[in-house]
Amino acid sequence: MYRVCFVCTGNICRSPMAESVFRAHVATAGLGALVEVDSAGTGGWHEGDGADPRTIAVLEAGGYEQDHRARQFRSSWFAGLDLVIALDAGHQRDLRALAPTAQDAAKVRLLRSYDPAATAAETDVPDPYYGPLDGFEECLELVEAASPGLLDAVRDAMKEHTA
Questions:
Q1: How far apart are the first and last CA of the chain?
Q2: Which amino acids are annotated catalytic?
């Protein structure tokens, strides 16, 4: 099993959105039994809560399923994960600092690094929480743009594991 965890701040907007979208890509690719997808937050403020209603609305409008409960990322999880996907540079920095080993820190990647159209200056998926619904729609667009490249990277990594 290849395990991917998406991480944002509170685990109610960006990371559950990325989790739902990527899980759909994994299922469409026929890899649902081989790739486990989940999400977490760098903080625990919303632990146990469902996704933000605007996240749910945007996901449902896009045809994505979600069944989410927020949780805080734990350092001990690194050992069981193959890839930890940060939604912005601040999350990446926090996660790498939390990593118990250099190998664990190397598992942390930015989601937009998998979007071929993103420039070096466009590394973050902006936090839509304090804004209107269109920020959530933009978040979905950015997640969708990066998902095919991430799926390719996961496929390649899985081939290396079995080779």
A1: 15
A2: 8, 14, 127
DSSP structure string for 81-128: -SEEEESSHHHHHHHHHH-SSHHHHTTEEEGGGG-TT--TT-------
Least Cα distance to 123 among 146, 100, 107 occurs for: 146
Pairing between strand 108-110 and 2-8? unpaired
Local confidence band at 163 (pLDDT 50, 70, 90 cut-offs): low
**Cβ-based neighbours of 143, under 8 Å, separated by 6 or more:** 14, 17, 18, 21, 22, 111, 125
pLDDT > 90: what percent of the chain? 93
Asked if residue 100 lies in contact with residue 21, where contact means CB atoms within 8 angstroms, the answer is no
Q: Is residue 162's pLDDT more than 90?
A: no
